[in-house]
Design goal:
CATH class: Alpha Beta
Radius of gyration: 17 Å
Helix content: 40-55%
Distance between the termini: 41 Å
Strand content: 15-25%
CATH architecture: 3-Layer(aba) Sandwich
CATH superfamily: NAD(P)-binding Rossmann-like Domain
Bound molecules: 1,4-dihydronicotinamide adenine dinucleotide
Length: about 250
């Protein structure tokens, strides 16, 4: 029970990596607010995981939704001690073909959503003596990818704001770290690689290092560590789980 006594909000938790984190957090004794805009899937997951969870509709770009999600979590479980800013969207297109609306949509969800999330939970964390904020960036927060200008910009921003927040909030015993997954086998990745029919094992062969894609559980395990007191001296850090992808140069 590595997360016994912890109260977490996990965004984008109706499916994919957020759902895997919700499952692992509950297994480790946390209370979890599963937050997403995919209400049906989110409610189903909360029903499956039982009383340690609630589902809350939360569009991470909405200040009102954040206020409501924090208030609901406080009223059912207490002040959140952990926030996983996991919700994200991907948009592939060349620079020339990226409309202003495309660019702004990606920045709004991935970057502004993360900022709004931190801002919403920090007062309660200060009041209750501390907490852990986990901001999900990407390997695109460490290196660039062609056709992912908006996404790469948003994920570098997440990495940067994590460090600024860690410096500002350390005196309140609030730790802030970024997680950088590589290619993870979720709907987002299969959509990006060409839809449901895609053979992710084949894609994985191109990953430098471990030569396979990662699983949502492998990211959830890292997040359990960061949410728990086991990571008590880690803040402002970048935690890679990318199978070795960013250890390589482009010729590997
Ligand atoms: P996914 O697409 O399966 O899950 C993303 C979740 O975010 C969905 O449930 C979606 O409904 C939710 N979401 C989207 N917009 C939202 C909004 N405005 N408000 C609230 N929720 C919203 O993708 P996956 O793989 O689970 O992604 C999780 C995080 O990991 C994202 O931040 C993504 O950028 C990041 N990531 C994913 C990688 C991958 O290969 N799958 C690699 C590196 C990072």
């Amino acid at each position: 029970m590595r997360l016994s006594g912890k109260i977490a909000i996990i965004t984008g938790a109706a499916r994919g990596q957020g759902a895997a984190a919700a499952r692992r957090f509950v297994e480790e004794g946390a209370k979890v607010t599963i937050a997403d805009i995919r209400d049906e899937e989110g409610k189903q997951l909360a029903a499956e995981l039982g009383q340690a969870t609630i589902y809350q509709h939360l569009d991470v770009t909405s200040e009102e939704d954040w206020a409501a999600a924090v208030a609901e979590t406080v009223s059912i479980f207490g002040h959140p001690s952990v926030l996983v800013n996991n919700a994200g969207i991907l948009h592939f297109s060349s620079i020339v073909d990226t409309t202003l609306a495309d660019y702004e949509r990606v920045i709004k969800v991935n970057q502004i959503g993360t900022f709004l999330g931190m801002r919403a939970v920090v007062p309660g964390m200060i009041e209750s003596g501390g907490g852990s904020i986990i901001n999900v960036s990407s390997v695109e927060g460490m290196t660039g990818s062609a056709y992912l200008t908006a996404y790469t910009a948003s994920k570098f921003a997440v990495r940067g704001m994590t460090k600024a927040a860690a410096l500002e909030l350390g005196k309140h015993n609030i730790r802030v770290n970024s997680v950088h997954p590589g290619a993870i086998d979720t709907q987002m990745a299969s959509d990006a690689m060409g839809g449901l029919e895609i053979d992710m094992a084949k894609v994985g062969k191109r990953v430098a290092g471990l030569r396979r894609v990662g699983t949502a559980d492998e990211i959830a395990n890292l997040q359990v560590f960061l949410a728990s007191d086991e990571s008590s001296y880690s803040t402002g850090g970048e935690f890679l789980a990318d199978g070795g992808a960013t250890a390589a140069n482009s010729l590997t």
